[in-house]
Every structure is written in structure tokens, then in C-alpha cells.
TrEMBL record:
Biased composition (Low complexity): 344-355
Protein's name in the database: Thaumatin family protein
Keywords: Signal
Disordered: annotated span: 319-355
Signal in keyword set: yes
Gene3D superfamilies reported for this sequence: Thaumatin
Domain of life: Eukaryota
PANTHER family the record matches: THAUMATIN FAMILY PROTEIN-RELATED, THAUMATIN-LIKE PROTEIN
Length: 419
């Protein structure tokens, strides 16, 4: 009995270092408690002194630390907001643990969209990588700091709380009366800009160049520059040290690295400069029109091009002032011309002109595509419809994407753009 008890006592003693060799601290500087959640690969989180630790908890203002295994990777820490707790049930508008409507999450599933994320991959090639990401949306200001003061700091919302400066097209969820989160252009299916031109392309989350997704075909990393991302410049100004779209790691001040030789610890701080608006989300009426200007590809660490041939823009001839701001029009059905295919749904835009004009033919500079144009009138509205059929030789996919253009002009926010 004695030797058996001794063996059981030794097991946790020697197992602890491998179970929790690194420490992550969550610092809640908000004025109210937060529902924190954690998920990752490479092992479960533990209490700092050892023992099981739930991957979700309600944290009062102050610090709470937990242990993570060396090699913890593809990991996230976030705060759930817009939550309502009833008995043992917790339902959150932003960041809820899928299929787990409880305070204590399992740590095996990432949260639902809309939350600011602290992301970690520890001990990869003797380095730790980490970032603050708003690719899935933004709900609270966040900052990541390392115990090694030589390591850079990641942050978002510390200069401007994005919920107080969110474009109406980025408000998430879109069917709510409050701004619970400000989503990314990819997440909210905002129309994407064609390279450095002012033309727009309808968005599909599973088939979009800017999101580096084209069905099941892998899009090369360098084919997704920030020159396609609307709102990139203004979002980067508000989150200078954060990851604002899916391939932002091609540029500086997005993903950070720190030598793991000293086994640094990390602190994730919510509301570092005071309360975030996500604690009491503003009404939808507070959404603010933002400049849609995309990135300019400066500082591209991969030396990728500003534009890529497959996603080059369609050019149009200006034919007058539309006299009104764009609004969504009736969805155009997709036309498919292949037995082996994958369809892409698109949404046109329309504007109301100030008088009768004649339609014009739009010319295309797109390579490796079959393009056609068609013009038509409806009352005093004149439209030019551009059909772009894309062929992907890997799967022989042929996709039809239609772009609406009224009198050669679009209204983007308060600015008139050529199309």
C-alpha cells in the first residue's frame, strides 16, 4: 500500500512540467466581468499549479493565469459578449462556444464569429508567434504583451474603439439593432475592390480572391494582396499592430515573433485603456460611413504583385453622374456552362440616375477569362451588366460572376467612382 501510494504521488510531480510549461494571463481591465474562452491544439490548458482547468470562465476585473503545454498551437483566447446566462445555460451573440451553451467551454472548438482574438503558436522553430486578429470581427479592445520586454506588442482598439467607428456594411450580426461586433470585409461579404482600381466585385466567402479562397482550389499566398481589401487602410489605422484580413501576415505589424529561449509568458489584456463599447453595444444608428480605400501593398514581405491576372479588374467608360447612392439590387442568377462546375452567386448594385442617358459597352482587360457585356434600360435607369466567366483548369470550373454598373459610375459611401 505504501509503495503504491508513493508511486501515485510521484506521477503528478513529474508530469506537471510537461503539462503546463508556459503561462498565459488574462487581464480584465474592463469595469465588468467577462466570459473568457480558450481553444487550441497541442494539449489542454491547466491550472498554473497543475490540475484541470475549464476552457471557459466568468472573470471579474483583474488577472487570471492558466498553464499551456509547450508546443500549444493554433490557439485562441477571446471574450464572449452580448451574453445572457439563465441557470446553467449561457447564450452569447458574439464568440459563443459552438454546441456548448455553458460558461465552461471544452477548448476544442473556436468561438462563433465577431470576437477580437488573441492567437498563439508556441515553440515553432524555437520561436513563439502571436497576434491580435480581427479577421473574424472585433468586439473589445485587446493587447498582447510578453514577459520578455524585447518582444513586440500586439494590439487593436487601444487608439480607437472600432465599435464607435464601424461602417454600416461591416456591422455584425446584420440583423441586430445594436453594433455587437464590427466584422471584416471577408466575414460580412462586403464587395471587394479590383486591385488598385475603384471597380467592385461581389463577395462569396468560399470563392473570393481577397479571402484566398477559390472553392477547393488553393490560392497562392501572394495572390491575395491587401490591394483587394476595402476599408483596409482605415482599419489598419485603428489597429496598427493587428491582423486585419486573412493574409495580413505578408505585411509588417500583423503577426509577431518572440524567441522562446527564455520561455516567456504572455498577457492578454481586455480594455487596456478603459471600457470597450462591446460591454454595452451602441445602437445601429451609430454606425459611421468609412473610406473604402484598399491597401497599397507597401511593405509586402513576400514581394507579391499589387494585382494578379486571374483577378484583374474590369474597366468601364464614365457616362455621367448617377445622382444617388448605391443600394442593393435584385440578385442575378448564376449561369453555369460546364458539366463539372461550382457556382458563385453574386449581387449587383444599382443607383438612380438624374436623367435619361444611353448605355455604353464596357471593355475588359481581364486575361484568361471569357467576358461579355449587355446593356439595358428600365424607366430612367440605365445599366451595364458585365459577365465574367472564370475558368480554373485544376477542376475545370466555369463560374459566372456579374457586376452591375449604372451609367459607368458607382457611388461608394459619398464618393463617385468610375466602373
Amino acid at each position: 500500500m505504501h509503495s503504491s501510494s508513493f508511486a501515485l504521488w510521484l506521477l503528478p510531480l513529474f508530469a506537471l512540467p510537461s503539462l503546463a510549461s508556459r503561462t498565459i494571463t488574462v487581464n480584465n481591465k474592463c469595469s465588468s466581468p467577462l466570459y473568457i474562452a480558450v481553444a487550441g491544439q497541442g494539449g489542454s490548458i491547466t491550472k498554473v499549479g497543475g490540475g484541470s482547468q475549464p476552457a471557459g470562465w466568468l472573470q471579474k476585473p483583474g488577472e487570471f493565469s492558466f498553464g499551456v503545454p509547450e508546443g500549444w498551437h493554433d490557439a485562441r483566447v477571446w471574450a464572449r459578449t452580448g451574453c445572457e446566462e439563465t441557470g446553467n445555460s449561457l447564450k452569447c451573440v458574439i464568440g459563443g462556444c459552438p454546441g456548448e451553451d455553458t460558461v465552461e467551454c471544452s477548448g476544442t472548438k473556436f468561438g462563433t464569429a465577431g470576437a477580437t482574438l488573441a492567437e498563439f503558436t508556441l515553440d515553432r522553430n524555437n520561436m513563439d508567434a502571436y497576434d491580435v486578429s480581427i479577421v473574424d470581427g472585433y468586439n473589445l479592445p485587446m493587447e498582447i504583451t510578453a514577459s520578455d520586454t524585447k518582444c513586440p506588442k500586439g494590439s487593436c482598439g487601444v487608439e480607437t474603439d472600432i465599435l464607435g467607428a464601424c461602417d454600416p456594411s461591416l456591422v455584425f450580426p446584420q440583423n441586430k439593432d445594436k453594433i455587437y461586433s464590427c466584422n471584416s470585409a471577408c466575414g460580412n461579404l462586403v464587395q471587394f475592390q479590383h486591385g488598385s482600381s475603384t471597380d467592385l466585385m461581389s463577395a462569396d466567402p468560399n470563392d473570393s480572391p481577397v479571402c484566398c479562397r477559390k472553392g477547393s482550389v488553393t490560392v497562392p499566398h501572394t495572390d491575395c494582396p491587401n490591394t483587394y481589401i476595402p476599408f483596409y487602410k482605415v482599419m489598419k489605422q485603428m489597429c496598427r499592430d493587428a491582423y486585419v484580413y486573412s493574409d495580413d501576415d505578408m505585411y509588417q505589424d500583423a503577426v509577431f515573433a518572440c524567441s522562446n529561449s527564455g520561455k516567456p509568458t504572455y498577457t492578454v489584456t481586455f480594455c487596456p485603456n478603459g471600457d470597450g463599447l462591446g460591454l454595452n453595444p451602441p445602437p445601429i444608428s451609430k454606425a459611421v460611413k468609412l473610406d473604402r480605400e484598399p491597401g497599397d501593398n507597401k511593405g509586402n514581405l513576400q514581394k507579391g504583385p499589387d494585382q494578379v491576372a486571374l483577378w484583374a479588374g474590369v474597366k468601364g467608360t464614365p457616362i455621367g453622374n448617377t445622382g444617388g447612392e448605391s443600394k442593393k439590387a435584385t440578385q442575378v442568377p448564376t449561369v453555369v456552362n460546364s458539366d463539372e462546375h461550382q457556382t458563385t452567386k453574386s449581387t449587383n448594385t444599382q443607383s438612380t440616375p438624374t436623367g435619361n442617358v444611353n448605355a455604353v459597352v464596357v471593355t475588359s482587360t481581364v486575361t484568361q477569362k471569357d467576358d461579355s457585356t449587355k446593356s439595358y434600360t428600365s424607366g430612367s435607369n440605365v445599366y451595364v451588366e458585365v459577365t465574367v466567366v472564370e475558368t480554373v483548369t485544376v477542376k475545370r470550373d466555369i463560374q459566372d460572376r456579374r457586376l452591375g454598373c449604372l451609367r459607368g459610375k458607382r457611388w461608394v459611401g459619398k464618393r463617385e467612382m468610375d466602373c
